[in-house]
Amino acid sequence: MIPKRLRINGRVFKITLLPDDSDALGLMHGDVGEIQIKPCDDSFVTKDTVLHEAMHAVRYMQGREDGGEVEEDYVRSLATGVLGILRDNPTF
Q1: Rounded to an integer, what distance in angstroms lies between the CA atom of residue 35 and that of residue 26?
Q2: 28, 55, 61, 92: which has the fewest Cβ within 10 Å?
């Protein structure tokens, strides 16, 4: 299930859905406090996308510059890795 909002570093980011024809799985719009997600049938992929975009929002709220492809690689690996840890260790 996709939450309707996330509080990230004191700011509420609303979560909305991307159109089905979107090429992106997710987008983060820090200027308006919005994360857009394209849901899919695989719940792990959807959760991974939400966490991925939330990590972009964390960086945005910390005032960090857009890191381009380096940031994308960093966020991608951490989001998937952290989600895997949480899935494989439910008592954590």
Answers
A1: 7
A2: 92
CA distance 67 to 64: 8
* pTM of the entire predicted model: 0.91
Tell me, rounded to whole angstroms, the distance of Cα 89 from its chain centroid. 21
| The pLDDT of residue 40 | 87
Of the candidates 87, 3, 61, the residue with the CA atom closest to the CA atom of residue 37: 3
The band of 39, judged by pLDDT with boundaries at 50, 70 and 90, is confident
| Angstrom distance (rounded) from CA 2 to CA 11 | 18
- For the stretch 43-89, pLDDT in tens is 999 999 999 999 999 999 999 988 889 999 999 999 999 999 999 99
**CA 24 centroid distance within chain:** 12
In this structure, what are the phi and psi dihedrals at residue 68, rounded to the nearest 5 degrees? Answer: 60, -140
d(CA 59, CA 54): 9
Q: For residue 45, give the amino acid letter.
A: V
